[in-house]
Amino acid sequence: MKQNWEKIDPLGLVLPLVILIVWYLTALSGRVPDYLFPAPVEFFQVLLDFIFGGAQLTPYSGKFLENLWVSCIRVITGFGLAACGGLLLGFLSGRNVLIRRMIDPLIQMIRTVPGIGWLPLALVWFGIGEGTTVFLIALAAFFPIYLNVADGASNVPDIYIRAGSMLGADKMGLFRTVILPASFPSIVVGLRLGLGVSWAYLVLGELTGVSRGLGAVLMDSRMLGQVEMIPVAMLCIAVMGIVSDRLLLILCDWLYPYHERTANGK
Question: What residues does the ABC transmembrane type-1 domain cover (predicted)?
């Protein structure tokens, strides 16, 4: 069954097109100097040079793939750790009252501390580099995954559980045939939110002084006065966020097809 997220809605292109037109007209009027924000033509020239190289317009000419690769590895690692912890603790908290009473207050308390508040401590623990970035990503992505999984697992109707038990399902069978199908939409929402947060906190982690990565390009561009590279790096991060979100949805649908979720009442 083809899902809505597999279709490209032309209406979603209207606002970006309007912004591009306003941007072009503003640059044409000369009201915004190039050193504050580049004109669209200059922006796309730098973007193409960043991806393909050759023009040497900036020090980052042709270095898109190497920075993208490093950032993707950090996001995958941090998000993977968050997903493992969020799914496990979310299901345990959602289905077991005693465990929820034990762990949920502490998790809720830690959740109120903003990610940037953990940055100084992360630098002490892990230093500048991979450890701090992965830690910040994993910490930030964990909470939306945990909260949504716990909510989905705790809201499985009791009648479904009783029906499964009457049909002879054991605990593992109930989890596989009842709890997982009923809570799967909440799981997908949590994973999508966690993945989006992962890209946001990637930038925070890479602003600490790592040598490579899209966030590092952002910071170095400001330091070197390459203002035109800042929106280019921002666009690359935004596009990768959308692409990774689509890939996550495809993976979820492959692991647990949409028609099966529909058949289970979702």
Answer: 68-248
User: Collapsing DSSP states into helix, strand and coil, what is residue 36?
Assistant: coil
The 8-class DSSP code of residue 3 comes to -
- Longest Cα separation, the chain: 74
Mean pLDDT of the chain: 82
Considering the chain, what percentage of its residues have pLDDT values greater than 90?
26
Q: What's the pLDDT at 170?
A: 64
| Overall size of the chain counted in residues | 266
Cα dihedral sign for 140, 142, 145, 147? negative
The predicted pLDDT at position 4 comes to: 45
65-263 has which CATH code? 1.10.3720.10
Distant-in-sequence, close-in-space partners of 191: CB < 8 Å, separation ≥ 6: 83, 145, 248, 252
| Calpha distance 122→107 (Å, rounded) | 18
pLDDT digits (tens, 9 = 90+) for 160-172: 777 766 666 666 7
Which residue, chain included where needed, has tokens 């993208």?
A: 68
* 3-class secondary structure, 209: coil
Please, what's the b/e burial string for 204-239 (b: 16 or more CB within 10 A of its CB; e: otherwise)? bbbbbebebbbbbbbbbbeeeebbbbbbbbeebbee
Give the residue among 199, 195, 192, 205 at the shortest CA–CA distance from 115: 205
Residue 185 pLDDT > 60, yes or no? Answer: yes
CA 242 to chain centroid: 9
- If you average pLDDT over residues 21-44, what whole number do you get? 77
CA distance 205 to 173: 41
Domain ranges of the chain: 11-29+37-62, 65-263
